[in-house]
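During the no-cost extension, the postdoctoral fellow (Dr. R.K.) reprocessed legacy sequence entries with the updated structure-token encoder. One reprocessed record is reproduced below for audit purposes.
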Amino acid sequence: MAKQPPTRLFITPKDFMQLYGHKSYKGAWKAYQALKDALGKKSHQKVTVTELASYEGVSVAEIMAVL
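Re-encoded structure tokens follow.
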């Protein structure tokens, strides 16, 4: 069976609120920026679902199930 690609390509700070249970957008934004720094992303670059899954050590399907 072939793997299906994720239906979404990029992760947003609002997704961080849902995934990590952040109560505020500002807290989610800080976590998102920390992830971008850890991945070596520039300010105009976005984080993909695949990169987040790899960083957290979970499958893309697990992340997509929450989103």
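The longest strand covers residues 10-11. The mean pLDDT is 89. The remaining legacy entries will be reprocessed before the final report is submitted.
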